[in-house]
Each structure stands twice: as structure tokens, then as C-alpha cells.
Input
Amino acid sequence: MTGPEVIVVRTGVANLASVLAGLRRAGAAPRVSNEPRDIETASHLLLPGVGAFGAGMRQLADDGLVAPLRARVSAGRPTLAICLGLQLLCDASDEDLGVAGLGVVPGIVRRFPDTVRVPQMGWNNVAPDEGCRLLRAGFAYFANSYRLAECPSGWQAAYAEHGGRFVAALEKGAVIGGQFHPELSGQWGLDLLRRWLGAGGETC
Output
């Protein structure tokens, strides 16, 4: 039996093959789109991204997706932003100074310190706050040079350690932003995708 359709945003800065495969393993029916109407009406939406912050925001702006994405996340509709996708939800990033993000997650994305390997590549432990409902403790796969250091007000967070504590993921109702790649994180990531797919339209 096929699960819910998931609109996967075509950002131009993501390798979609693994994302689509992961969603199918979780029981979803993914469809790639950059149509504003799809972003507005989708029951579930995934914002992927691998690459540069500025390039990702330019593509979203060129496709007319900035306003629909802001409205969707602000309304708490089921949305999963992964890797660069999480960073695009924020106000800005040190990676591309002067480029505004979607601004639905207050905060600026900063580069890891030079005291650790940059980019972070590989598995890391994810430790959620007690208030998290969809995020669980476990190991996830990361590939990132930038991260959000603090959890903004109104969100629940899971944390990991790399050059100090950083935000591994954010959760607010049916909206999740993960700095990791759930589609590459084995059974733990698959379970997270399934919990998110079942989250419906609940908000907190």
C-alpha cells in the first residue's frame, strides 16, 4: 500500500536519487517539483540540499518558492528540510554573506571552527531534548561545513558534537529540519522518515 505523496523541492543543489530512494523505502510516493502550487498544497514536503547557501536561495527565488515555503513552515504543515535545506530555513549563513535565507528559523548558520575537520563527514551521535516528539536518540550521517549553534525560541532541538555542541536537528510540530541525511542514516533514518510521514498536520 502506497503512503502519502511527498513533494520533493527541485532546488538545483541536491542529489535527489538517494532522497527519493529513502522516501520510497519509508513507504512514501515522492514527486519532484518546483511549482509554487505544489509547495502550497502538498500534504508532505521535503526541502533537500547539498551545496552552497547562496545558490540554493537563488534557485528558490527564481522559481517563486520563497513565499510559499515561508508560509508552509510558518503554518506548521508537514515539512522536512535536510542538510542545506535546514540552513536555508535560517536568516542567513556565513557561507554567502549578504544573502537572506527564508527566515522562518531565527539564527545565522556559522562555519565549524578550524580546530576540527571541515567538512564534517560521517556518523555522529544525535541527542534530542526531552520535548522532542519525532526526533529520537541515535546515530545519523552528516556531511556539512556549516551549522546552527543554538536552538531558536519556539523550537525543540537535537544536538551533536563537532568542535562543540551544534544543532543536529530542529522540530516544531510536523516540521523537522535535520542537518544530517536521514536517507543515508540506516534504520534510524528510515524510522525518522516514517514517523514524519505519519505526523499529519499536527502543530505545537
About this structure: Residues 19 and 183 are 6 Å apart (CA to CA). Helices lie at 16-25, 36-41, 53-62, 66-74, 84-88, 186-197.
